[in-house]
Amino acid sequence: MALPSLLRFCDFLEHRLHTSNVALLRRIMRDFYAGNEHTLQDFMRLGASAVTVMPVERKGPQHVKEAQRLLTEQIEQTTPSEAANTEAGQPELCVFRFLLARVATKNILWLRDLFHEFCQGRDEMLREFVRRGNVPISLLPVDIQALCMAPLPPPPLMMDTM
User: Can you tell which superkingdom this protein's organism belongs to (predicted)?
Assistant: First the structure.
């Protein structure tokens, strides 16, 4: 799946669900496809915001109409080879693995699976995501690779109670 599909998916999410800072996710994805991580580094260094996708549908008629248009456009833009790869379960989902390895995430696999289904022109999983209502998707500005390299803090001092 190419960058245009990922960007269209971000637009779809913004119109279909309540989100925050998805524009930041778009920039991180663009950087990933350009072979750098400038935006991701700034995201982790500044730590000022998180990217979230909430399991709450937007109700405005304009949002609903635009989300449906984007889903239809995705179906029309998918090439036969992309459709075959998606049906075989072999889409290029490297950006989600990259995010999982680089930053603290919550429910990123939901996002990956929602994207996979979006590429097929479907939204059943998104409806299930909303129905459950208790699993927001988050990207947090924490460099998990740096956490793995940091030494553990010393154990707390034990106080003698006698």
Answer: Eukaryota
